[in-house]
Specification:
There is one protein chain. This protein has a domain of about 40 residues. With about 60 residues, it is mostly helical. The model has no long low-confidence stretch (mean pLDDT about 75). It contains two helices and no strands.
């Protein structure tokens, strides 16, 4: 199954990470903002898992 970029919630997190890393490097070339950029990604994964569990509990019986 191929997920289109517009339908993939993780794509928005990847865009946020790219934005943070790019602008952080422009402001200070010694910056390495990996952990700051991963926060939105981890939050998205946790939220997705919670919603999936809810739907499985409600719809899956």
């Amino acid at each position: 199954m191929v997920l289109l970029r517009r339908n993939n919630p993780a794509a928005f997190d990847q865009d946020a990470i790219a934005f943070l890393l790019t602008h952080g490097q422009k402001a200070d070339p010694s910056n390495f903002l990996l952990m700051h950029a991963m926060g939105p990604n981890v939050a998205g994964v946790i939220g997705t898992a919670m919603v999936a569990g809810y739907f499985i509990a409600i719809l899956g019986g």
